[in-house]
Amino acid sequence: MGLVVMKFGGSSVADADKMKVVARKITAKKNAGNKVVAVVSAPGDTTDDLLEMAEKVSANPPAREMDMLLATGEQVSISLLAMTIDAMGEKVVSMTGPQAGITADADYTRAKIRKIDPKKVKAQLAKGNIVIVAGFQAANPKGDITTLGRGGSDLTAVALAAALEADSCEIYSDVEGVYTTDPRAVKNARKLDYLSYDEMLEMAGSGAQVLQARSVEVAKKFGVEIHSRSTFSDNVGTIITSEEKIRRKKMEALLVSAVTFDKNQVKFTIIDLPDIPGVAAKIFGKLAKIGVNVDMIIQSAAVDKKNDISFTVSKQDIKKTQLELDKIAAELKASNVVADENVAKVSVVGIGMRSNAGVAAQMFEILSKKGINIEMISTSEIKISCIVDSTDLTKAVEYLHDGFKLAKKK
Amino acid sequence: MGLVVMKFGGSSVADADKMKVVARKITAKKNAGNKVVAVVSAPGDTTDDLLEMAEKVSANPPAREMDMLLATGEQVSISLLAMTIDAMGEKVVSMTGPQAGITADADYTRAKIRKIDPKKVKAQLAKGNIVIVAGFQAANPKGDITTLGRGGSDLTAVALAAALEADSCEIYSDVEGVYTTDPRAVKNARKLDYLSYDEMLEMAGSGAQVLQARSVEVAKKFGVEIHSRSTFSDNVGTIITSEEKIRRKKMEALLVSAVTFDKNQVKFTIIDLPDIPGVAAKIFGKLAKIGVNVDMIIQSAAVDKKNDISFTVSKQDIKKTQLELDKIAAELKASNVVADENVAKVSVVGIGMRSNAGVAAQMFEILSKKGINIEMISTSEIKISCIVDSTDLTKAVEYLHDGFKLAKKK
């Protein structure tokens, strides 16, 4: 007996048959004696279809209207899923994000949740209803519909679980949980039983696409335990919880929990920058202003009062970064700006690093032994990332996965 | 200078190009110095697509969830139309029915508007915005989304026009206005300049599909003048207004304003009913209970304490009517129930009938002269309807249209 929040992504509700699979999972959970709140995303390609419609009428649609449009996707999911569950003979009611009491700040397209008033959800649960809530959406203080950005349904689920003080928050997807690395890239990738919030955050930030980073932050803040598992099996997935709890269970943390990678990187180098104070601040300040997120940075030692500076950004930002850097380079009289798209980032993540200093050295050794050149390095308390040539990426991931003994036991 | 409510149906916003035509009409109205509120329906076939999705998951979807689903159609229209207008450089904001302050009773799928609080719409107009409102939808007292039934967007437009005390209410469609009869059936059908609320109501109730009947009732009640016109031309259409105003303008009302027809009819006959009191009440009471709307009724004189009773219903009710009548016939020991689908209704409508008694006689004479047999007759103050064999319908409409001199002047 408990209160369970279950979240299903768009691919899980893409058509009537999949919707029935989801409905059966929800009713089974209810029949096992739980109160159930299910959060769903827009079905399949709906969001892309809506974006395409918008493109046809406007090159630059107002964000408010975009949110009004996109929010219809989840509204279709919740009503159809409620009909499906009703047809199975269970009591059910659907709610949009605003109806479920989710309010956000005044930002459109990537609003932040400000408050959840779960009164109406609780009232429906008390009546014995399964409650289906639209993910990804909220109302702003003016009563406009806003959306929470990519992966916002995860955030809705975790925030609702926190507000309802749910006993568990299950995030369903088409994978069995969180893996030691992407199973599509490395065959003997192993499903992890436990993962800490911080590890999950580092993984989300370095290419793994299982859970949205903001939702993990909220889960950590409110102590919501996330169970990442598959829509299409009954297997236990991966529990994302506090480091303390994991240490208690596992006695000793693994040195490295996972290897992640990100092909969506481009390296920019500004050549022959004058070595005067404030140059870096100027460059990165201007990039921040136009919304470009800079990841890794490396600066060469000055020679003749000039040096080079390299950094990575996401591939989708390549054009506007190039434009801005050309202006900056001209202004600062640097000699050239070079963009290199043939790079990729590979990272190892693990809370074990906190108490073991040798992980970085071990990583560099594994890569160098196999002749893989490291172009840039960055580290955090529980993550080490390297930029390598993109043609080396597959090998790098495999070697690290083997080298840190993450593979499935035979 | 004035406040204009403009309503556009689903076919007017079916794709990006049509949406641009509508957007230009709206901005032109604004640029002529008016405040503009536009009400739109769901684009093209969206509602049918949504109904089909619902069918796939449930044979009998809950009405509440059906409304939640269907309301997404208009939300797509309003946001896309607002984007289109914004791209033309005009200030615009979209609102769902609930956001526009439209509240309805607790009924789903055919809710009745209880109140409109136009505060938010007025505030946006005062800021110089064009306001795009989703037709067909409202919020019920619980905060659920409800819909207003077929043609509900007309009702939204008229009710908003009343609440805003608009100077005019323009209902756009793909026809130029209201015609003396269906121009697809009779080539020389003539567009009417004026029509009274009552005539429009009788026409809507007898097969003409220009305006939804409930919206005309509301227009009559609040004195909202409706201008029915085409999305695809700038011609003046038909003004639907009070009888008094028409008489003032035209000095003398026409005897007959229009000929309408309805092929969606089926005639049931129960044969050899016992002639005892209360039989008719029993039959029609039971049909009302299962939601069947009975139109025309004829009862034969009793012979041997038995008589026949015939009446018409809409074709979509044929199955449930047959099932119910079979039960009733067995119970009352009638000998048989016969359904005749080869019937159609033809009507003449005109406020001139109020002061001229001879219209019915004239109608019967026109039909009989041409050898058309009348199976059933019903009359109201300003309408006479006849049931004829469906193979005679086209001729009947033509003869009446000619006979009452409704054709275009050459």
From TrEMBL, chains A, B:
Pfam family, one: ACT_9
Annotated ACT domain residues: 268-351
Pathways involved: Amino-acid biosynthesis; L-threonine biosynthesis; L-threonine from L-aspartate: step 1/5; Amino-acid biosynthesis; L-lysine biosynthesis via DAP pathway; (S)-tetrahydrodipicolinate from L-aspartate: step 1/4; Amino-acid biosynthesis; L-methionine biosynthesis via de novo pathway; L-homoserine from L-aspartate: step 1/3
One term under GO cellular component: cytosol
Keywords: Amino-acid biosynthesis, ATP-binding, Kinase, Lysine biosynthesis, Nucleotide-binding, Transferase
Record GO biological process: homoserine biosynthetic process; lysine biosynthetic process via diaminopimelate; threonine biosynthetic process
EC class: transferase
Transferase in keyword set: yes
InterPro entries linked: AceGlu_kinase-like_sf, ACT-like_dom_sf, ACT_Aspartokinase, ACT_dom, AKii-LysC-BS, Asp/Glu/Uridylate_kinase, Asp_kin_monofn, Asp_kinase
Molecular functions per Gene Ontology: aspartate kinase activity; ATP binding
Gene3D superfamilies in the cross-refs: Acetylglutamate kinase-like, VC0802-like
PROSITE patterns: ACT (PS51671), ASPARTOKINASE (PS00324)
Entry EC no(s): 2.7.2.4
Reactions accelerated catalytically: L-aspartate + ATP = 4-phospho-L-aspartate + ADP
Residue numbers binding substrate: T47, E74
SUPFAM superfamilies listed in its UniProt record: ACT-like, Carbamate kinase-like
Family, similarity comment: Belongs to the aspartokinase family.
Name of protein: Aspartokinase
